[in-house]
Design brief:
The protein has nine helices and seven strands. It is α/β, with parallel strands linked by helices. The protein has two domains: about 180 residues, Rossmann fold, CATH 3.40.50; about 80 residues. A seven-stranded mixed beta sheet has the order 3-2-1-4-5-7-6, sandwiched between helices. α7 crosses α8. It is globular and about 45 Å long.
């Protein structure tokens, strides 16, 4: 049976997290970004000592925060980044680690109190199938939080044109060897991410809306985060994007109800409750 992974993409993420292990990300910034993703998560629904999973944990940057809030966390990633996550969470006894793909990890079905997968399932060939695999692990009534790249359906023609240009660049850059790829994505962070992000911060300070300025999401982020996300965005071979309606359909088809989307960036974050 063919695994639901793209090997080039998995290897790319292993390379990325080897370079950006998040050791240089401040705990304050990590918490702020975590809170943005988890703003819609129903914390009150979790039982005491809840057991759940982080699918596509990468270097463990979100697991480091989540592990303090729950009874046990299963960290799952098919790339070599799982070893970075293991080292990052070395002081915690309530974590397990699996170098597995979405369709091969072996947690019992209907066993987990929660799950999340942030920025991962748009990088697998069959997003719908992967989401159903996640749902199968959850107990009825358990929440699942997911972040998928959105299709810019509410953006202007010019904004979408810029994205198409960037996607054309991605398809070239992602094929490069590791060294040149890191150099170019760092350069993109310096000459594109940083000016747009900090420019939007200045514009916001004078009282103007910056939501339609590309990369304004990074206006309060460190250059380290910009470098990490530039490598993520331009170095990854497989990328899919979904409209809000498409994501809602994916969640329903996977057996989730009470589906809620975030009202601000990052988009789209969505949480649902397993039926």
């Amino acid at each position: 049976m063919k695994k639901n992974i793209d090997r080039a993409t998995v290897d790319s993420f292993g390379d990325e997290w080897g370079r950006f292990n998040q050791a240089d990300l401040s705990s304050k910034e990590a918490q702020e970004i975590f809170d943005q993703y988890f703003s819609i998560f129903p914390w009150e629904s979790l039982p005491k000592n809840a057991e759940g999973f982080d699918l596509g944990c990468g270097s463990g940057r979100w697991a480091k925060i989540m592990i303090k809030k729950v009874g046990h966390l299963h960290c799952i990633d098919p790339s070599n980044a799982i070893e970075i996550a293991r080292e990052s969470l070395l002081g915690f006894s309530n974590a397990s680690f699996y170098k597995k793909s979405v369709d091969e990890f072996s947690l019992p079905i209907n066993s987990q109190d929660f799950g999340y997968s942030l920025g991962v399932l748009h990088h697998v060939p069959d997003t719908a199938g992967a989401l159903k695999e996640c749902a199968s692990l959850l107990k009825p009534g358990a929440p699942f939080l997911m972040y998928l790249y959105y299709a810019l359906e509410d953006k202007s023609f010019f904004y979408k044109f810029l994205w198409r240009c960037s996607d054309f660049m991605r398809k070239i850059i992602c094929r490069l060897p590791s060294g040149p790829k890191h150099f170019i994505t760092d350069l993109i962070a310096a000459i594109i991410y940083f000016p747009f992000a900090k420019g939007s911060l200045i514009i916001e300070k004078v009282g103007l809306n910056v939501s339609n300025i590309p990369l304004s999401f990074y206006r309060n982020c460190s250059f380290y985060t910009m470098r990490t996300d530039s490598r993520d965005r331009f170095g990854t071979p497989l990328e899919q994007r979904f409209t809000k309606d498409e994501i809602h359909g994916l969640m329903e088809d996977a057996g989730f109800k009470n589906i809620v989307f975030n009202s601000s960036e990052p988009r789209w974050c969505v949480v649902g409750i397993k039926s």
